[in-house]
Prior knowledge:
The structure holds two protein chains of two kinds.
Chain A: H1 46-58, H2 65-81, H3 88-114, H4 121-136, H5 144-168, H6 173-195, E1 200-202, H7 206-213, H8 218-245, H9 253-275, H10 290-307, H11 309-326, H12 331-357, E2 359-361, H13 366-380, H14 391-410, H15 415-442
Antiparallel strand pairs in A: 1-2
Helix pairs in contact in A: 2-14, 3-10, 3-11, 3-12, 3-13, 3-14, 4-5, 4-6, 4-12, 4-13, 5-6, 5-12, 7-12, 8-9, 10-11, 11-12, 13-14, 13-15, 14-15
Chain B: E1 21-30, E2 33-43, E3 48-53, H1 59-66, E4 74-79, E5 82-84, H2 89-95, E6 97-100, H3 112-116, E7 123-124, E8 127-128, H4 130-143, H5 161-174, E9 179-183, H6 191-206, E10 210-214, H7 218-224, E11 227-232, E12 235-241, H8 247-256
Helix pairs in contact in B: 4-5, 5-6
Amino acid sequence: xxVSSPQTPPxxxxxxxxxxxxxxxxxxxxxxxxxxxxxRTPNSTFGQYLTGWAKRIRYxxxxxxxxxxxxxxxxxxxxxxxxxxxxxxNLTNLLVQGSVFVLLGMxxxxxxxxxxxxxxxxxxAGIGAVIxxxxxxxxxxxxxxxxxxxGMLATAAIGALWGVLVIRLRLPSxxxxxxGLLGLEGLLLYLVNAYGTxxxxxxxxxxxxxxxxxxxxxxxxxxxxxGSVALFAAATILRDTRRRRSGMVAPPMxxxxxxxxxxxxxxxxxxLICNTNRGILVPLRGVPYVVPIIVGFLVIFTFMLGRTRFxxxxxxxxxxxxxxxxxxxxxxxxxxxxxxxxxxxxGAAGIVYASRLGSISNNIDGGQLVLYAVAAAVIGxxxxxxxxxxxxxxxxxxxxxxxxxxxxxxxxxxxxxQYMATALVLLAAVTIDALARRGRTAN
Amino acid sequence: MTTVAERDESGPPGAAGRPLxxxxxxxxxxxxxxxxxxxxLDIMPGKITALVxxxxxxxxxxxxxxxxxxxxxxxxxxxxxEPVTARTPRxxxxxxxxxxxxxxxxxxxxxxxxxxxxxxxxxTHRLLDETEMEKSARQTLxxxxxxxVSSVRQLxxxxxxxxxxxxxxxxxxxxxxxxxxxxxxxxxxxxxxTAQVLDLIxxxxxxxxxxxxxxxxxxxxxxxxxxxxxxxxxTLVSSGPVTEYDAQSAVELITTGDRxxxxxxxxxxxxxxxxxxx
Lengths: 443, 278
């Protein structure tokens, strides 16, 4: 991030458009009757910011608010039903359960932004887990990092294959990856039967098992938490301040601080919960390793989508591929990389899945996992129609699904109820998406 | 006298007045269909040239040829007197030709800045330089006196038709284009927004930018254009300063490819046949 730009007073840049709220709009040439003048200055006040925000919600840019609200609602319902829900042990368990849904949702976001879909992520994740488990097993004894790299490279290559079929042969991604779902299930059965015993390949590597079963020490947890909050706060405040100073569109300071504060509180609460002793016989405390791993993926992927040309092009292609093409964007390469990243992320999800179970077996339900993946992304706020979706959506949507899964399990409700509840949440999310879109085009 | 004789494009390009873009004998065939049959046209810097013609006359084929969507089947293009080829949109872009299509080619899910820089993003340290892009986009909009958008960070999907047109034009101007081609810029707009866009076209000309406008609306053409070029069944049947035409002669040229009388002595017998707005 460039911080070195020498800041001269705003007058040097655009003297006629600087932060002077008092410019009478009618004095400007070329303005015609009938076009509404909305807020004029980029540096809006708190109130103006809220107004603009309300407007964005009406245009279908509701952001993460609906899903955060829904998540809070679900937590309240389950806590009222069963007070164990908000216990440290259960919440930590929920985070680990949710990590697979979150990663699969993130995998799906890459292609959803393009308006494509990958139905194979569930079994592709399984393939990644199988390859990692085989290589890290006693037969081959690869170091854990090499086994992980090999597994994720394989799933990325599978994603690349779907991408090539979709882009070069112009096949619909739905059908290509549906074939992929079936084909990879077959491949997975073959690999597990060839290399496993009794339809299972056990994870014997300690590091792989510790991804979800090991914890940061309480002190390390605090160090990581405080460090990342400080980085986030510094980056956010610095960016918004610089934008305000150079007269760019920026939220008012109060909003910036509010955002930083909310994240800080959330992180502190998370670490507090995880650091509470949740052991029954022996003390067990600390943040599971998978939590910082997920946050790492979230930060890197969000950065790629928001700050790089590649990310910008994915949104452009998803919004209007023809416009992107005419602007000189290479549709083929950018779409291919999105499919590769979907496969890559799915591989990570598979490894986390296997770590949690301590093994990877031939009865992994990749078909259900992919539905959860799509549901996580869409519940969080990604659009199936392309052009809209962020990694944070997969995180929040994955947490919603994990909450339903976990909460209903606590209440002793059968799987039948879990599916129906998830279905309702998914329908609600898609309805919100469709209504938001309609609102946007109507305006 | 034939209308072809009125053309001022005879002789080698770049002789007098130095046209920015000269087309000589441009043809374009799609299989057996000949969409353009030897078009000669000069486009002057700072002048607004209106390209008119009935449906199927070859207007879209022609602008797509100029803007590099496809190359011509035969014929030459001269840019500032130099022979050039524009066989891809990138080629045309490098020359300084920007095209604003009828559908505007905007991404509704991106904001104004993002749309204006789409495919040409500014980078610092290989990352998007949002600050510079926003400054530059705002400056361009201000230069064009586009003041009706509230914030350059507004999503384009939330803009009105005229505002969207303004963004598309601003995008073309921002890349230092010397020739801006506009396809039916006012087709979908209401009265005040049409005035807004015509105003904008006028300002492009004032800034020395050559503009080639396709339009069906003759009242727009006569209110904004400096020069008129009429296509009829793939042939450029007439071109010249707009003052040499009136609504009736233009309509005759568009519908029949010929005008029975010179513009200054239009036959009253035919004046009621055709609605000039049609």
